Amino acid sequence: MIDLRDVSKVYQVGDERVRALDHASVHVYPQEFVSIIGPSGSGKSTLMNIIGCLDTADAGLYMLDGIPIEDYTENQLAKVRNRKIGFVFQSFNLIAKLSAWENVELPLIYQGVKRAERVQRVNEALDRVGLLKRAKHLPTELSGGQQQRVAIARALVTKPSLILADEPTGNLDSHTTKDIMSIFHELHAQGNTIVLITHDNDVAHQAKRIIHILDGRLTEVTE
Amino acid sequence: MLSLKMALRSISGNKMRAMLTMLGIIIGVVALVVLVSLVNGATGSVTDAVASLGSDLLTVTVSDDKGYPVRMEDLRSWTKEEAALGRMAPQSSASVTAKSGETSDSLTAYGTTPAYYEIEGLKLTMGRFLKDTDVDNASCVCVLSYDTATELIGYVDCIGEEISLDGMKYTVVGVLSEEESLMTSMNFGALTAYIPYTSLMRLSSSVTADVTTFVLSAADGATVAQAETAISDILYERFQYDEDAYSVNSLNVMEDAMSSITSILSILLGGIAGISLIVGGIGIMNIMLVTVTERTREIGIRKAIGANRGTILRQFLMEAVVLCMLGCAIGIFLSWCILRIAAVVASSLSMRFALNGTVVLIAVGFCFFIGVVFGLYPANKAAKMKPIDALHYGG
């Protein structure tokens, strides 16, 4: 599924070169629930960007579904993100002007799905996160937990190979965190591959496999 | 269709800003459409007036007779000899002082022959025009224009009244109708009277039996061009093959001149309005750049969930074009209102002001062009953003 081999990424910050990823290798198999845990500045955002095809590595090999993607053009990467990856972000990242329903619809529009099918799939996705009743609301009219559920619905709607969640509970209280995590468990039970990036030990330990990241190096802890 | 909806939504989300941005385009469109329509309306009515006043008229001016002056007998014989030539009449004028009772005013006296009536397409209200016998006898009779009769004598029904021109007594034998003829409209209200050519020779020392200016019409069944060729050939031979010795002018030349003035004015005004449209376009580009920066995060989200460069480019380009076209539509509507008002105000001037279809099409096309040109740079800037940079913009 995800096959990351010896991937390095270096950022130039002022005069300093920051090695955000140092020969990192990760394998994630289909239908796995993996969490990547590390303190801030450990390189987990960089890792997430590379796994999510938002950024490309300086060195190393990244195969997603058996396809090496480093030579992909920007538009090809956009297509990969659209079809294979569903993002869930810490700050929800919903488009404020669009209703919950339209936010979920957006990736399907980019995929070129016909209207009738879009309606059906969006309703399905919103139903799975239990928000069909609030479909017409704008993100600002929803609570944090509800917004995150809309974001999860948006990630689900394209039926991606991988759901990539970056601190999905970082902005939520403990009660809502439980809610959101139970949705992830449910999705995992339904056969979705989930990679969850967090700095929260409790959240991380709900996954079947935990990968620690520190200073750009990975160490795997299997439970 | 979907991107059009998105663009409209994004614009309506910030109405005040959109309105101010469109103002530049609105003003540009109004300037373009109204100015060009006004010019076309004004000159259109003048050219129509010229065209309706018989364009089968030729005016010949002899500047150098080379010792072979044109006489009235020549005019008569040319008419008989050349099939293409219709009526001919000498036309000389002199400024004289006209007196009637206590009233005294300067007046332009045209010396001519009866043929003049037909050639110029004059119309009589009462009495008669000049007769051949008047010319033969150099009679002191005159035909007044309608305005001259009312201003000099005080009333139109003045057949048989006597007026004096430079001290010589003339009997009024006819009054032209009030309806504008070309000559009266060209005189812009100056008093005019028509007297026998021979009679004018006595009044003015500068008018002699040598005709220097005469008018002619084409014969029935002949075109103006044929008449023009015929008279030119005759004069060319007579004046020793010197083309500069005489000139033959038709009203077509005036019409051509008029329409070229119209088009020059239209282009000039259109150009000025075009500049204001370009300024409006720069305003749109400015606001679109602000919009792109404001929505950096949105662009990041859209790219993360699979929008490619083309999609983002189209979205912002569409927004700029829609902004332009909305401004254009409002501008055209305002122009229509302004022209309606102008038409009411100017109805007394017998001018027709209407929305000019061509210029509306030009305005629409130009606005679209401006929307694309000035929208392209901001849209491209948005499309080129890296998804991670855009996502992390502003937190």
Briefly say what this structure is.
Chain A is 35% helix and 29% strand.
How would you characterize the overall build of this protein?
Chain A contains 7 helices and 10 strands. Chain A has 223 residues and is α/β, with parallel strands linked by helices. In chain A, strands 6-7-8-3-9-10 form a 6-stranded mixed beta sheet, with helices on both faces. Chain A has a 4-stranded antiparallel beta sheet with strand order 2-1-4-5, with helices on one face. In chain A, a hairpin with a 2-residue loop joins strand 1 (2-13) and strand 2. The longest helix of chain A has 16 residues, at 174-189. Chain B has a 6-stranded mixed β-barrel. The longest helix of chain B has 44 residues, at 251-294. Chain B has 14 helices and 11 strands. Helices cover 58% and strands 17% of the residues of chain B. The two termini of chain B are 33 Å apart. Chain B has 2 domains: 2-50 and 256-391, no CATH class; 65-241, no CATH class. Chain B has helices spanning 2-12, 15-52, 72-81, 115-120, 132-137, 146-153, 182-187, 197-203, 224-238, 251-294, 296-304, 309-345, 357-383, 387-391, and strands at residues 57-62, 85-90, 92-100, 103-112, 124-127, 141-144, 162-165, 168-176, 192-196, 213-218, 246-250. The chains are: A alpha/beta (223), B alpha+beta (395). At the A-B interface, helix 2 and helix 3 of A face helix 1, helix 11, helix 12 and helix 14 of B.
Q: How many distinct folded domains of chain B? A: 2
Average pLDDT, all residues of chain A: 89
How much strand of chain B? 15-25%
- Which runs of chain B of at least 5 residues are low in confidence (pLDDT < 50)? none
Number of helices, counting only DSSP H or I runs of 4 residues or more of chain B: 14
Overall tally of domains of chain A: 1
How much strand of chain A? 25-35%
Which architecture of chain A does the CATH hierarchy give at level 2?
Answer: 3-Layer(aba) Sandwich
* Annotated CATH topology of chain A: Rossmann fold
- Radius of gyration of chain B, in Å, reads 33 Å
Separate helix tally of chain A: 7
Structural class of chain A: alpha/beta
